[in-house]
Amino acid sequence: MSEYIISQMHIEAARNSTDDFNLFHDKNRWHRIKENPFQGTVALGFQLGCFVEDQVNRSPKNYDQQLKQIETAKVSVNPLNFSQYEFTFAGSVKPGDSISLVVRDGRLSDIAGVECFSNRIALKANGKTVLLGYKRCTSEHIVPGITNLPDFSEIINSKDRTFITPEQYFVKRKYMIVGNAKNFLTSSFAEQSEYIDEFIDKVSFPEMYPMSLLSSALLERAQAVGQDLIEEPMIYISHKLSIDKTVLNTLKSNDSLNILVSPPQKSTDESSEYVTHDCTCILSNHKILFQAEIQLSPLSALLK
Q1: How confident is the model over 86-109, as a mean pLDDT?
Q2: Rounded mean pLDDT of 153-163?
Q3: Is the CB of residue 114 less than 8 Å from the CB of residue 140?
């Protein structure tokens, strides 16, 4: 289990490559957040997600390695062309922290009728668990995203940062940029040439990069509805992310992503202040790239 020391430069690379302007990551303005308990900057949630992705890719316990041992392994009879990430955030990572990932043995199972191979993971900072969850390979999406999608043409032809349909879905348009993806990989201790190497005309975007652009979409939606990001900051509680690897492999630099974010849905627990946003990303060719369920909480609720 290798350990890596995160620095403010890693955080800068992650926030700049994803357009994440959350003050929790800003070395000059983190102190402006009301009652900020972290007393400094913290790493981005999606940055840690990319670390998970890359470390699982390197692990002998991942599904691709399992396939290479097919004589002794139990493997899926169906192509597992979707990646699912399920994270619960249990702490924060700060500059100077030593991080590592524990990857448990994977197993083949069935979730709601969908075949999947799952590795349980735990991300540790200075030996303390700060993120728990699963990395799964599945035969289809198991994260529903926005179930009542508008017509794809309406999404694609909408202006950036607008609200559409009676449900008031927020549209954020982002673009796949090779340079940003390389910086994002570097922020997560990944060897960028294993994903992107223009010298040999290789561009294989990491799964977490397009999904990381949800961070700016959520922040811009918050601004659009008048939320005060200093007085009323939100923090991640959990991520459920699902990406179609076949569609991801077709993406090229400058391809556009049309990210749709639902209004916040309150928890059914009346004592909870958590909210959930469902999200779906549509490409210009009308294909769905990823789906997500992002749970957030007001910082004030966690300080009570």
Answers
A1: 96
A2: 97
A3: yes
